[in-house]
Each structure stands twice: as C-alpha cells, then as structure tokens.
C-alpha cells in the first residue's frame, strides 16, 4: 500500500536478487504474490483523527488481505507501507487464525519497522556514534502513532522528527509526489533539509514511500546519509528466500 509502494517494492526485489545473489534468469527469481489495493482508506488521516470507524475498516481490510495471502500458501508476508504497520496486530492475528486451522503452514510476517531499527542500530556502532542524530521522515500517521519513536528509543538511537509546521510541509510534499508534482515536492523538501542542517542531523531515515523519490533528486545538493526502509525490507526478504532455498524452479 499504496499502488506506488507495491510497484517500487517489486522492483527492489528484482534489484536485490540481482545484486546480492547474481540471479541470471527469470526462472531463478523469487515467486511472489502481490495484492495492490489502493482502495483502503487513508491511513494517515484515520490515525491522526482517531476515527474509530475508519480505523476498524482499515484493520479489517488489512486482515482480509493477509488471509488471502495465507490461502496462497506464501512463506513470508510483508507490508511495504510504514504507516500501515500501525495495524500489525491485525496482520499477525490473521496469520494466527489461519495457522490454527492449517497446522502445517504459518507464514512469517517481517516488520519493516523492526528491520530498519536493527539496521540503524548496527550502523550507529559501525559507522557513526550513539550521539549521531537520526532524522525520521515519515507520514504523520506514523509519527502520531509512535511507531519509530518507540522502536528507536528502545534501541537507544538519538532520533529527531520535524516540528509540526515542517511535518505539515512534508505531508504536502508526499501528496505532491503522489500527484506527479515532483518539482514542487523538491522545493518544499529543501525547507525541511535546511532545518535538519541547523539541527546537526547526519542521517535521514526515509520512512515513507514517496520520500526516496524526492531525496534521489536532491542527493547532490545535501550531504546526509540516507536510509531507505523499503530497501532494507527488500534486501532482508531476498536473503531469507535464497538462504532458505525458496522454490525457484
């Protein structure tokens, strides 16, 4: 979720298969089942407003999608939307319900939030220090729900979120990307990045699908170390599949 995130994740699976495991032909790539459902209501709006009806509808929709994936007998389930991890309990409950009636099959849910935190924590020890400030660019729903705040705090990572006025600018930029207005999004993102420089941010966690689209265009203008959450997820999934001997016939 949404449509762009699904497409980008599929491309990352192909790219990581080629770069990490030198996959030479189509038949050696990982079989995937993708449900690309852009009709699920806006997660950011529902979380921010705490609209119980919308939250219930989203949770039920995500659980239904999870059940469909389980019925396809997949081994791994991922959600390539950071904000939608707010509904992780619905995913895990649907998996548990399926496994209760199918004892020989239980897909593994791989959390992008947990993986990203592990990666950042490792980098703090190998490339940076515990004092390095990591800024998080995420949708407002993800910020309000504390998804990354909790995970990064538990890992003792010095994190920083944009103040409310800049978070609103970020959301405008995100929706500009969705609407195809990349140049406007870049202009607004420069305001946020200038603020990060003032705050001595060194690392940026790109925790929303649209953010890397903007940052790729601005990477030559700024000297931040960029971490793409979806790229981390794709690399982990590829490694799990090939290391476990996924069906590649």
Label this structure with key terms.
249 residues; alpha/beta; four-stranded parallel beta sheet; 11 helices; globular
Describe this structure in a few short sentences.
The chain is of the alpha/beta class. Helices cover 58% and strands 9% of the residues.
Overall description:
The mean pLDDT is 92. With 249 residues, the protein is an alpha/beta fold. 35% of the residues are buried. The strands form 2 sheets. It has a 4-stranded parallel beta sheet, with helices on both faces. A two-stranded parallel sheet has the order 1-2. It has helices at 3-21, 43-49, 52-71, 88-101, 112-126, 140-145, 147-154, 164-178, 182-198, 210-218, 229-243, and strands spanning 76-78, 108-110, 134-138, 159-160, 203-207, 225-228.
Order of helices and strands: HHHEHEHEHHEHHEHEH
Residue stretches low in confidence (pLDDT < 50, at least 5 long) are none
Distance, first to last CA: 29 Å
Strand order of the largest sheet: 4-3-5-6
Kindly state the percentage of residues in helix. 55-70%
The chain-level mean pLDDT equals 92
> What portion of the residues fall into strands of 2 or more residues?
5-15%
Sketch the major β-sheet.
4 strands, parallel
Structural class: alpha/beta
Please tally the helical runs, counting DSSP H or I stretches of 4 or more residues: 11
């Amino acid at each position: 979720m949404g449509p762009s995130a699904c497409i980008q994740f599929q491309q990352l699976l192909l790219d990581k298969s080629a770069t990490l495991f030198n996959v030479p032909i189509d038949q050696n790539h990982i079989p995937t089942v993708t449900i690309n459902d852009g009709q699920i209501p806006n997660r950011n709006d529902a979380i921010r407003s705490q609209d119980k009806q919308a939250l219930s509808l989203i949770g039920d929709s995500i659980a239904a999608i999870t059940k469909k994936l389980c019925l396809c007998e997949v081994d791994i389930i991922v959600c390539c939307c950071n904000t939608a991890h707010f509904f992780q309990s619905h995913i895990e409950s649907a998996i548990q319900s399926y496994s209760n009636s199918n004892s020989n099959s239980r897909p593994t849910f791989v959390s992008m939030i947990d993986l990203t935190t592990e990666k950042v924590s490792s980098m703090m020890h190998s490339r940076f220090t515990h004092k390095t400030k990591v800024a998080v660019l995420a949708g407002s729903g993800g910020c309000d729900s504390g998804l990354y705040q909790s995970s990064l705090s538990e890992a003792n990572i010095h994190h920083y979120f944009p103040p409310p006025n800049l978070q609103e600018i970020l959301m405008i930029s995100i929706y500009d990307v969705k609407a195809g207005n990349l140049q406007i999004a870049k202009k607004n993102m420069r305001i946020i990045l200038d603020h990060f420089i003032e705050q001595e941010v060194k690392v940026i966690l790109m925790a929303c699908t649209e953010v890397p689209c903007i940052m790729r265009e601005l990477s030559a203008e700024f000297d931040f170390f960029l971490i793409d959450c979806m790229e981390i997820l794709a690399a982990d999934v590829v490694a799990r599949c090939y290391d476990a001997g996924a069906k590649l016939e």
